[in-house]
Amino acid sequence: MKKIFWYFLQLLALCILLGALPIGSLLGHPAAGWSVFAVVALLHLSETLVTIPLAKQRNFPIGIAVLKTFLFGFTWWIPFRQGIMH
């Protein structure tokens, strides 16, 4: 059950990241879409400060950890840290 919850949150995080630009344009506010995208992207990139050491500790490929963190943010690395997901 916990895994399904985290997968759902990952889907939401990905939708926010990738959906911000088209939704902003469709609503006639492309700058708002770019702003949301930039904020989420910067937030996810800042989380690599947590995920890179975690990936090294668990012998997980750093490139994949950074990619998953950029796409999913904390919805990936928290269950990874807890051993729920890889």
Characterization of the model:
The longest helix has 25 residues, at 2-26. Helix 1 (2-26) runs antiparallel to helix 2 and helix 3 (48-57) runs antiparallel to helix 4 (62-72). This protein is elongated. Helices cover 84% and strands 0% of the residues. The chain has helices spanning 2-26, 30-46, 48-57, 62-72, 74-82. By secondary structure, it is an all-alpha fold. It contains five helices and no strands. It has one domain.
What's this model, at a glance?
The chain has 86 residues and is mainly α. The chain has five helices and no strands. It has one domain.
Keywords for this structure?
86 residues; mainly alpha; 5 helices; 84% helix
Topology:
Blueprint: H1 2-26, H2 30-46, H3 48-57, H4 62-72, H5 74-82
Q: Total number of helical segments?
A: 5
Termini Cα gap: 16 Å
Radius of gyration, Cα only, in angstroms? 14 Å
Strand content: under 5%
Shape: elongated
**How confident is the prediction overall: mean pLDDT?**
92
Report the helical percentage: over 70%
